[in-house]
Amino acid sequence: MAVVEEPEQEFKPQKKKPDSEDDKRRKKITPGSLMKALIRPGAGENTPSDGDQVIYHCTIRTLDGVVVESTRAEIGGNGNPKRQVLGKSKILLGLLEGIPTMLNGEVAMFKMKPELHYGEEDCPVSVADGFPKDDELHFEIELIDFSKVKVISEDLGVLKKVKEEGQGWEQPREPYEVKAWISGKSGDGKLIFSHSQGEPFFFTFGKSEIPKGLEMGIGTMSRGEKAVIYVTKEYLTQCPLIPSVEGITEIHFEVELVHFVQVRDVLGDGRLIKRRVRDGRGEFPMDCPLQDSLLHVHYKGMLLNEEKTVFYDTRADENGQPLEFRSGEGLVPEGFEMCTRLMLPGEIALVTCPPDYAYDKFPRPAKVPEGVYIQWEIELLDYEKQKDWTGFNFREIMDDVEKIKGTGNRLFKEGKYELAKAKYEHVLREFNHVNPQDDDEGKEFSDTRNLLHLNMAACWLKMGEFRKSIEACNKVMEANPAHAKALYRRGMAYMAGGDFDEARADFNKMMTSDKQSEAPAKAALLKLKKEEQETQRRARQQFKGLFDKKPGEIAEAGEEDLGEEVSGESHDTGGDGVVLDEDKEHLLQGTDPPRLGIWSRLWPSGRRLITTLGLDRCTIL
């Protein structure tokens, strides 16, 4: 029996982690340069390590016992202990090596040679002139406390020590409404203020109602969390909580985050605001109906007048029956749906909505005037996620596709191109996991996918995204370069983008490849000819008399002619003959794709001519 020898695995030593700056400094320590004497033993078994914040009193003496410097008030200091983070703060070499040997509450004396304190070459800690940095000194250290902290600001001006973990992962941010118990002490432990009785302190996040550093720290807390937030004077801004910060070097804030109300600026411009009134079930945003779903809601619609006039209430107007609708189908105002997608089951939210996201673009209730802001009180009862195709056979999948495609076609007819596109995109995405089992299924699958790509192209065309429309058509033509509908749709996109030669080539190819498409191809060529003539006419109008002007007048000439053309431009309200797939294929009449500006609409050869002449740069001479 043959024995197969396994090849010897080559031993690859692990890459050694490069030394940090502190590690490099520690290599300077020589035997006898740092000595430690225990004055008072500490408690516990743990000692500080990198990443820990250490709080300690420090008194520096000469070997004769003369005090040079101290943090203690009774020896002439300010009473504020030092606060540093091992591995991050600038710290003396002797203390960098000595403090990690101490227990909590321990008092020790360190005897240091000059190269271990301020006499170190390139010492990162500065010292006042006249300090005996070239002498051997005694450092008496009392380690008051050490703990892990979260570094919130890179300069270590804001740190957080967690005393009790909170619930969930959501954290307050602008413009959330927050309730918290807050008290503040100076570095030496003196109480500055306290909001720990009666009602918790209430503030709106991002409104400068608390010091900047405190707000930064609270912004990292979860509901119910208790923490100490250390803030230096650089982050102690004046505010209603602390009217004056003069003379304060740092404050230790003890905070318990009692509650916060989620307030979301949905559009980012302050117009569409969602304010959570009652918490829902689950975790935000994982348990929200972010994807298209069947939602059940109760809502009350109000005008933002003094009377808060109610124009609709499902509990009163629908005999207590909730509203049921599918998201992503344009069945409710856009602002209503955007906010509902951000709700948890059981949540109640108050939504303030601008008119362009309420009823200006949606059937307006009789009691709602035009152009007014609306307020909805919405309760999301529950929702059902859109079913996936797991366990479906091919026929069940294609039946579901027809329903989704039909919804997309309806949205397209209503001019809701973005929503229609999302429907087609969803099916195309799910098609990546569908495997037809025979030739008949394969043909049906391929034909349906092509129609979806063409419908996507129609949406992109209506949205003015001509290149994306062309790319969608190209996906169909990869398998069938003579696909008549794809040629037609791509030709329309080329024409809308001003690429007339490419459009003409597609329409001509369409006629030769499919005799049944001859009539729409000829109509498209006729439209193309008119577009070219119109573009040339407008180009001549724009550059008329350009070279009769003096050099300093060229810019003004172009601007005047262009302004006249835009103001007098007539808009064609006829259709572009967009083919949209339905049970019976036909041409949908709609508005033309958005027009490009005159500079982009120049025919390709004309653009090259203008560029060659340098007229594309004729602005100011």
Would you spell out the secondary-structure blueprint of this structure?
Layout: H1 21-26, E1 34-40, E2 52-62, E3 67-70, E4 82-85, H2 93-98, E5 107-112, E6 137-148, E7 150-151, E8 158-164, E9 177-186, E10 191-195, E11 201-204, H3 212-218, E12 226-232, E13 250-261, E14 263-265, E15 273-278, E16 293-303, E17 310-313, H4 314-317, E18 323-326, H5 334-340, E19 348-353, E20 374-385, H6 394-413, H7 417-430, H8 439-462, H9 466-477, H10 484-496, H11 500-513, H12 518-543, H13 554-568, E21 578-580, E22 586-588, H14 598-601, H15 604-613
Antiparallel strand pairs: 1-5, 2-3, 2-4, 2-6, 5-6, 7-8, 8-12, 9-10, 9-11, 9-13, 12-13, 14-15, 15-19, 16-17, 16-18, 16-20, 19-20, 21-22
Structural class: alpha+beta
> Which percent range fits the helix content?
25-40%
Number of helical elements: 15
Low-confidence blocks of residues? 554-579, 581-591, 598-621
Radius of gyration: 37 Å
Cα(first) to Cα(last) distance is 91 Å
Oligomer: single chain
In total, the number of strands is 22
Question: What global shape is seen?
Answer: elongated
Query: How large is the share of residues in beta strands?
Result: 15-25%
Reported for the largest beta sheet, the result is: 7 strands, antiparallel
Arithmetic mean of pLDDT: 86
